[in-house]
Amino acid sequence: SQVMLQAQAEHGMISAWCPEGLSQIQCQPYIYDILKPYFRISKDCGFKGGCFANSKVLLIDGTNYNANYGSASTEWSTFILQDGISVLLQYYTSPAVGIYVDIDNFRGSNTYGKDVFIFHATDDKVVPVGMRTEAGGDALSAYCGRYCAAWVLANENMDYLHCNDLSWNGKTKCK
Question: What's the predicted TM-score (pTM) here?
Answer without folding.
Answer: 0.88
